[in-house]
Amino acid sequence: MPCLYLSTNVNLDGVDINPIFSEATKAISAITGKPESHVMVLLKGSVPISFGASTSEPAAYGELVALGGITKAVKRELIATLGIILQNSKLGIPRTRFFLKVVDVSTPMGSKL
Prior knowledge:
The protein is of the alpha/beta class. The chain has one domain: Macrophage Migration Inhibitory Factor (2-Layer Sandwich), CATH 3.30.429.10. It has helices at residues 18-32, 72-88; strands at 3-8, 40-44, 60-66, 98-104. The two termini are 19 Å apart.
């Protein structure tokens, strides 16, 4: 079950976040080959984040944890696609201000993807 946890410094009050959940779920499912029914997405807003010495510009940090199926190509596609989703969403987080950590828990720690 892939799980994406996103934290952002953007205030989510009054923001329709359902499209972000929907788009991220579909993208993760398509890229990892896991069914949408097994994808979990968590989103937390108003998290203090400093990125490039700026705390005022929109930024996000994400962690995607999956059990298998994470290759270098999958990792690159996840980073690019989720970055586009956040940039094009109402959150307006530039792709250059988004960092994603991708972890395959079926891979021994320390091995390179």
